Structures are given as structure tokens and as C-alpha cells.
Amino acid sequence: MIRYEQDQSVEMKNLNMIKSNFLLASGPVKNSIIAFLHPLRRPISWACQRRFLPSGIRHLLPWRWALEPFSVYGQNWKFLWVPAEFDDIVHGLFWSGLCSFESETMCVIMGQIRQARCFVDVGANCGIYTVLGATINKQIQIIAIEPVPRICAALVRNVSQNKFDTRVTILNIAAGNCDAIVDFHEAEYAGMGSLAVQGYQGQPGRLIRVQCRKLDSVASELNIEPDLIKIDAEGFSDAVLSGASRLLDKVRPRIVLEANPGDAVLRITEILTTHRYAMHLITDNGPELREEIIASAKYRNWLCLPLGQDDRKVPIAEVEV
Hints:
- By secondary structure, the chain is of the alpha/beta class.
- 36% of the residues lie in helices and 22% in strands.
- It is built from eleven helices and 13 strands.
- It starts with a helix and ends in a 15-residue tail after the last strand.
């Protein structure tokens, strides 16, 4: 361990020395170096994601590399990611792949997606779980729900560029507990849009009008029976669950949801308990059974399984690098 730390320290010193020399170079020299290196952008990203190059190398190379389309790599699969200007995960994806994004939850969701037939992605954002799901499960049908038009456009691009249009249905709506046109808070930070009209957790932004649909209504209209639902609704997981009461009773999907401090965790617990679900906090050690949903600053995602399924071994994939 001591030798490993010494090697890492020497490596960082060498990288810092190279960086210092690069910063001292003139503008034209820098531009020439950047242009010369650009053909290496793809193999360098691949090598970093596969951990063949140290993560610190990103500090020596152009940060704009991550703003061009790039591939995310796993074991025997890859998908194309098309960055948007507001996409806050692109740099992590470009340099570290899936290891950079909700690593403890990614393992669980990948395991669940592989055995799913129909996946509803509530709060799909730019489509990381939607595109991943369609990549690793060639038979899955996906319904991706994203209410903010500009984010939904980025979701459409990522799905289209990967040629998943025939297996992914994209709905530019909010999921909630009513079928109506409602106010929705479009946050300046793209990942924090919410039905909280004052802004989720004080986020600045603006109000827009969006169509809100119950998941029960969506499922009936599309004639689907989802066996996996992911909910990322920024404080409104309880509303999404309330609008899915028929699905919870009759179809019994597995659910991955987010619960942050300040969210309606008692109401979420009440709904899940009423519909006979077991609640597992997703931790670095895997899903751990809990009696109720408790908001945690460290772990915020939960795997909720219908009673009768919770005693089975929960499939967990390795985050593939």
C-alpha cells in the first residue's frame, strides 16, 4: 500500500510538471499542441474509462474534448453520448465512464435492467439510464419521461444517435398524481427541475406549463405493463407513486427511486407499505432492507421490491470498465 501511494505521488508530480510547462507555452504553441493531440481524443477517453491511464491526465488535456460526441464503454458494449451545453455529467462520463455516475446505484439498476421487459424512466434527463438500458438489454421496451423541452430534446438526440427509436418511446411530460396541465419549475441547473413551483430546495429558475400524467394513465394508453420503474422526480416521488396505484397493485413493478432530505419520505413509506413493497437502501455494500424510507445525505436511492420478490437474490451487476 505504501509503495502504491508513493507511485501515485510520483505520478501526480510528473503530471503537474508537464502541466506547468504546458501553461508556460505561448498561445500559438498551445493551440498547435491541442490540434496535434485531437486525433488521440477517442483512444485516450477509452483508455481512461478502462483505467489504463491515470484519471489525473484529464487536467493536462482540453476540457472541451468532453463537449463533442463520444462513446461510453462497458464489457462488450458501448453507446454514443451526445453532450448538451447544460449536461452536468459529460466530463465524468468522458474520462471515467459509468464509474463516475452514481456508482452504487448503477450496479443495482444494471442488474435490474438486464432482467426487465418494460422499463419506465421517470425523470430521464438526457437519457443516461434510458440509453444504457437499451444498450445492455436488446429486448427491453423503454418509456422515457422528461418534462423540460430543452432536456427532452437532448434525450431525443441520444436515443436517435444510438438508433434506439424503435424500442424507446419518449414522452415530453411530467409524471405525477393527476392528468392535467400544470406549472413546472425549470431550474437553471438542469438536473433539478421539479413540480415544486417555488423551486426544489431553493433552486433558481422559471415556471413553465407542462402536461402532467399519472403512470396508470400512461400505461393504459400505451398498453404496457412495466416491470421496472425508475423515479427521479426531485421531491415528488410520492406524487409519482400516487399516480401509479393500479400498477403497484396489479403489475407489481420493481422500483428504484430517489429520496433526499426534505422529501416526503413518510408519505413515500406509507404508499409503498400500503401496496406491500419492501424498501432497500442502496449502499456501497448493495441494497439493505429498511423498515421505512429515511432521507440520507450519503445514500439517496432506494430499491423497492414487491413482497414475495424481496427475498430473492437482488441482481447486481459490476460497473463495467
